[in-house]
């Protein structure tokens, strides 16, 4: 049986159950046990109920078929999932509208006309005022029926919502018309539950009252209803506020989780919210543990690659970690913080990963490179970016590619691989370029010894604004001279 057929069946069962309870249960008991009727009058009233009930069912079926149309279009043809999604969520409120519309008036208007005719033709020996009382009773019974159907429909519609969401390529959204807040559900439900039995009892009592006691009776009845109304509203508000606090707190903490802030909730509840809070805290703990493990794996990933590069070339051992250190110090002075700073450090650790793809004959050559060999070396930023792209980095790590691909761009546009210039060079690329160049100049190479700090410093200063971003050169020199002293002019290497 399809989901939609199951829904139709469930709605039919709900409708019959609600009608039996509200209309034929409460309504018929109210009529036949409150009024003193002869056998023929009972038959007349039963006939009126059958005729008006048939009109009611016809009108409500017509409206139901109209309301269900967007769901039929989706489940039969796969069309308009957004409209079907909204209609599914709206169906409980549409059910209330059907109960208070064609259900109420389709029953009451024909019944009123037939009852007035029966009284006029003396087939019913009732005062005309009783028709007004019947309308009051019908409104009460319709409200009860609407509440029952609302909550039954809310359960029945749930199996349809999941398939609609799964079939849509985009995220489906609700509009305000499809929603009903918990506050209104509680308020209206408590009012109806509190008022219905009292109001029905007062109405039934009035029907049995004599005409002489009518005014005094209604003064007393109005006071009773007012007091019950006040207590019901106050009780609903107190109950809702008691339930609202943990809901608001949970929603706030879920929003914090979406923003990457994983704070556990204080659990000071002693009802079902205690279990819900424990579940939320367990979720947060699980996310923290998973993130910590992922972070350890990432750190291991970066460490392994850095060690791999160092193992291939003993002359540049330690280069990667020094570049990461220098880049981090520049970034701190440039104002980078938090995750942004951590991403830069990771990018610097991986900046030469592309050298894995450079042949040993070129990478480890003991002497100066030919133009052809240098062209091969110049491919390593692109190779590094391709390696990381194939790893399928999560979205928050994608900025790592900027430092790997662009740390050999020049500020004047004469660098490689893309010939970018100025601020078009990604920030990570411009920062790592300064750190990488300095460490290359102050480290031993097979074809030359390391430069003294003073010479490397002069080269950086002369390249401000042409080869490197001037601001990052100044920030690097400030850091380096603070750490090692301004007079450091010996051969500079962290190994020496």
Automatic annotation (TrEMBL):
Residues 241-292 form the HAMP domain. Its main location: membrane. SUPFAM superfamilies: HD-domain/PDEase-like (SSF109604). Gene3D superfamilies: 6.10.340.10, Hypothetical protein af1432. Residues 294-492 form the HD-GYP domain. Keywords: Cell membrane, Membrane, Transmembrane, Transmembrane helix. One of its GO terms (biological process) is signal transduction. GO terms for cellular component: plasma membrane. It is found in: Cell membrane. The keyword Transmembrane helix applies. The chain crosses the membrane at residues 12-36, 42-65, 99-120, 132-152, 186-205, 217-240. PROSITE patterns: HAMP, HD_GYP. This is Cyclic di-GMP phosphodiesterase response regulator RpfG. It comes from Salisediminibacterium beveridgei.
